[in-house]
Amino acid sequence: MFELILFSILNGLVYGLLLFMLSSGLTLIFSMMGVLNFAHASFYMLGAYFAFTMSGYIGFFPALIIAPIIAGLLGALVERYGLRHVHRYGHVAELIFTFGLAFLIEEVVQFFWGKQLQDYRVPEVLDFTFFEMFGNAFPAYKAFMLLVSIAIFVLLFAVLTRSRVGMIIQAAITHPNIVAMLGHNVPFIFMATFGVGSALAAIAGVIAGPVLGTGPAMAFELGTIVFVVVVFGGLGSLSGAFVASIMIGLIQTVAVALDVSVSDFFGLFGMSFSPDDFLVDVWTITLPQIAPIIPYLMLVLMLIFRPQGLMGKRES
Amino acid sequence: MLEVRDLHAYYGKSHILQGVNFEIGDGEIVSLLGRNGVGRSTTAKAIMGDVPPNGSIVFKGEEIAGLKPHQIAQRGLGYVPENRDIFPALTARQNLLLGQKKAGKSGRWSMEDMFDLFPNLRERADVPGGVLSGGEQQMLTMCRTLMGDPDLVIVDEPTEGLAPRVVTQVGTLLEAIAARGISILLVEQKLAIALSISHRVYVMGHGRIVYEGTPDELRANEQIRREWLEV
């Protein structure tokens, strides 16, 4: 049992921090623009594809730096020449714009790389077992993912709370006009935030691509979970996004690992189900089978009982 | 210092400013008076580029109509918003630091000057702006703008909802600002401080300037006061 818990927690942290790399950027962008960026996970996908192609020429580690920079610049261009113009037509237009962009990026990716999964692999230097316990191996690459995610988290936190740029961003989120009239270039700050948010998503793509798979569906697959995370944590709340990322990361990995069902619970009391019992399929369904549903179930329950999310503020 | 000619501004389809003309000289304190809804705040926001202006606004010899708000601020125009719009999550000190246009660049005013003027702010420098009292927040918004070393400050309704003792403090600060050679445009509804510290006053009505004179002339002109100012 101990090894199960330990490995589930480690895997949950890897996945949760990965989710936070996406949800942090999405949350910052939402706070500034007031709009959920549907194309956010597309930059995660671009990061993975860019790094996959580049690593063939320059190796994995240079690609880990350069791919996010390119994706970040693309993000900044999208804000500067796309969203900023759509902004004047209101939130609905912006939402539809990001929705369209997500499809556009997916099509473009398929155009260049095709529909099949890419052979994007863990780099050889990191392809070994980090430690082994009770017969279970923890791969070095996952430890590397954990390390990169924690470094990004610490850096983001330090910049936002300790630096002048972070203070300007915090102030611009709530009072963009006032910040501008103090002489700060608010449109530029918005563009840069969008770019950095996209770059963070791309870093997540670079490091997750070899583990979760690099294919045209990857943006949609992770994107939906990231939306669950930001809504569950509370739209616009960075700490909420962090807590929700870790929670959903842990819950999903633990649920996959615990092979139990309702019938096991009754089994403790000596009761068992026969194949003819009423709704037998429901009672014998196992937790790993419903694991993919759990985040969405959490989302629905949260919206019913606490619509502002864990730490979000109710819009007045 | 500032020359506004035939300034028009719109909110949607409503024509708020209908040809405003006035000017402010170097080191002058000028008040823009009028009842609610006549376009005083809109005039201030149009000068700052926060509301798109139509017409001519010349600041220190340069046309600034059409520039972006941060460009206008960078040229030396300071704006103190109404409603004491501080950044609530940041501390008082951080609020002041954001007033500086570049990190560590202080001009005529240093952080110490602000604390000397308002010892309260020194004591509460490291508490979040959101928990300061109304009067402290008003001082903070004014000091924050001064940290950017403006040549002209537009102060929008600084005494609204403040206790009389704090109103006096606001008046003292405005005089301290003027003593350093900075021009002031005071946008006010109430006459009290405006008449006591201004060199000249303008009265607005229906999106236009309807009267120009000295505070003494306005005091003597009961008809203008009754028609355009008194509620």
TrEMBL record, chain A:
Membrane topology: Multi-pass membrane protein
Organism of origin: Oceanibacterium hippocampi
Keywords: Amino-acid transport, Cell membrane, Membrane, Transmembrane, Transmembrane helix, Transport
Listed name of the protein: High-affinity branched-chain amino acid transport system permease protein LivH
Places the protein is found: Cell membrane
TM annotation in the entry: 12-36, 56-77, 89-113, 140-160, 188-211, 217-235, 242-262, 282-305
Main location: membrane
Family named by the database record: Belongs to the binding-protein-dependent transport system permease family. LivHM subfamily.
Cellular component terms per the entry's GO annotation: plasma membrane
Gene this chain is encoded by: livH_19
GO molecular function list: transmembrane transporter activity
InterPro entries noted in UniProt: ABC_transp_permease, BCAA_transport_permease
CDD domains per the UniProt record, alphabetical: TM_PBP1_LivH_like
The keyword Transport belongs to this UniProt entry's keyword annotation: yes
One Pfam match: BPD_transp_2
BP terms from Gene Ontology: amino acid transport
Lineage of the species this protein comes from: Bacteria, Pseudomonadati, Pseudomonadota, Alphaproteobacteria, Sneathiellales
Keyword Glycoprotein: no
Top-level lineage group: Bacteria
TrEMBL record, chain B:
Chain ranges of the ABC transporter domain: 2-231
Xref: PROSITE patterns: ABC_TRANSPORTER_1, ABC_TRANSPORTER_2
Natural source organism: Oceanibacterium hippocampi
A GO term for molecular function: ATP binding
One GO term (biological process): L-amino acid transport
Domain of life of the native organism: Bacteria
Family the UniProt entry places it in: Belongs to the ABC transporter superfamily.
Entries under SUPFAM superfamilies matching the protein: P-loop containing nucleoside triphosphate hydrolases (SSF52540)
Record keywords, A-Z: Amino-acid transport, ATP-binding, Nucleotide-binding, Transport
Native organism taxonomy: Bacteria, Pseudomonadati, Pseudomonadota, Alphaproteobacteria, Sneathiellales
Protein's name in the database: High-affinity branched-chain amino acid transport ATP-binding protein LivF
Cross-referenced CDD domains: ABC_TM1139_LivF_branched (cd03224)
PANTHER family in alphabetical order: ABC TRANSPORTER ATP-BINDING PROTEIN (PTHR43820:SF2), HIGH-AFFINITY BRANCHED-CHAIN AMINO ACID TRANSPORT ATP-BINDING PROTEIN LIVF (PTHR43820)
